[in-house]
Amino acid sequence: MITQAQEMPRVRFTWNIHYACNFRCPYCFFDGKWAEYGRRNIYQSSGEWMRDWNKILQVHGRCYILITGGEPFMYPDFIELMRQLSRIHYPLNISTNASGDLESFVKVIDPQRVSLSVSLQPHFTKLDAFLEKIALLRAHQFYGCVNFVAYPPFLKNISFYQDKFKEKGEELKIIPFWGKYQNQEYPFSYTQEEKKMVGITDAWFSKVRKKNSRCPAGYNSALIFPDAKVARCGQIGERMVIGNFLDPSFRLLEKPLPCDAEYCPCDENELFGEGPERGEDA
Q1: Using an 8 Å Cβ cutoff, are 127 and 100 in contact?
Q2: Please, which pLDDT band fits residue 75 given cuts at 50, 70 and 90?
Q3: pLDDT tens-digit profile of 228-262?
Q4: Quick one: how far is CA 92 from the chain centroid?
Q5: Which of 94, 104, 150, 260 has the CA that lies 20 to 30 A from 143?
């Protein structure tokens, strides 16, 4: 159980556990690439993964881990893997479309160590059924964001969805859409009214402009790909691979480095700050 007396871990990993999903959302980063990317998936048993995560524990201490995909619940024996992983690394946050076996999940996973960021996908999920799943999670003390991507065709229904969630005591977190729709680049192509609806301002665009800023991504956070390559972050991706998670000698970078992404909505700076270089006193 996490208490106020316990500090958040100094290191965060985002684990893109596999390229596989039972939904085919047109606004997904992997739209049209699932078969191609899926060939890179590595599937190990819970015991094998725990060997590797125990190695991380010895090197970097307890870590904060964000589990994403694809759809994480499609990973073989996923619930058991999370049960074992959350014993040594926590908090864990799982990003899911809520289509998995949540009833089994809530019976064996500790909500004090694991949260879920659940995404409403209107193309594939009926609203009432989705709200029932949120109610199940809350009844078992599982918390986390309820996300909704502001894909242009969805904009006209945002207020409707927000009202429906408000009726249930929930807040719908609106996520700006990054990508192309009808030959327009988003989020830059939102109208002023749409920007207000989505919750982004000119100051927000300035904030996510990160080119050449000194960033601790890769130093106290990193992204693990499904093939076990480790990159600084999702924006940099494979332009800067810092190692392989399965390599016994894997380590994070020794210090923060400049960012080469023009725009980056990641939150490494807000969550962690740059911090001292290894070997220096905090």
Answers
A1: no
A2: very high
A3: 999 988 877 788 899 999 999 999 999 988 887 77
A4: 10
A5: 150
Angle (CA) 249-251-252 rounded to 5° is 165
CB-CB neighbours of 128 under 10 Å? 8
Alpha carbon 76 to chain centroid, angstroms: 19
Task: Quick: pLDDT tens for 101-111.
Answer: 999 999 999 99
Closest CA to 143 of 106, 88, 100, 174: 106
With b for 16 or more beta-carbon neighbours within 10 A and e for fewer, the 69-81 pattern comes to bbbbbbbeebbeb
- Alpha helices (runs of H) in 175-282, residue ranges in sequence order: 192-198, 202-207, 268-272
Give domain 11-272's CATH number out of 3.40.1190.10, 3.40.1390.30, 3.20.20.70, 3.10.20.90: 3.20.20.70
Place of tokens 């964001």: 145
